[in-house]
Model the fold of this input.
Amino acid sequence: MKFSTKTRYGIRAMIEIARNDSENGIYQKNIADNQEISNKYLDHIIHALKVSELIYRKGKKGGYALTRKPDQITLYDINNAFEPGICVIECLNKTVNCPRENECTARGFWSNLNNIIIDFFKSVTLKDLLENRVAIDN
Done:
């Protein structure tokens, strides 16, 4: 399973926006520079985050700010701005009709793994990332 570049960059952009405490928000150019994301590609990311109501623009010439506090925005929320949920294998996708669904003995394993990943994404907030509370286990 691989997460899209938009999801990964979306998380980075959200961290950058959350770090900013300016009254005017943070400008897209600053997000692009600080996170080394092309401004053109960041346009798509910003658009998806706005449509998902995770960020908003502070006035006509203002920068971007979060719509909620960092502890109220999960990585699952951010992922869903770019992807229609999380699905480790295609046959778990609700839009796919798998002919082996009823007799597949591995389906339960994949479904449980998928739920663990979803639960983890739901348990980690933007605040957790800002405070570096997600440990790296080796």
The first helix runs from residue 5 to 19. The chain is about 45% helix and 5% strand. The two ends are 20 Å apart (CA to CA). The helical segments are 5-19, 28-35, 39-51, 75-80, 107-123, 126-130.
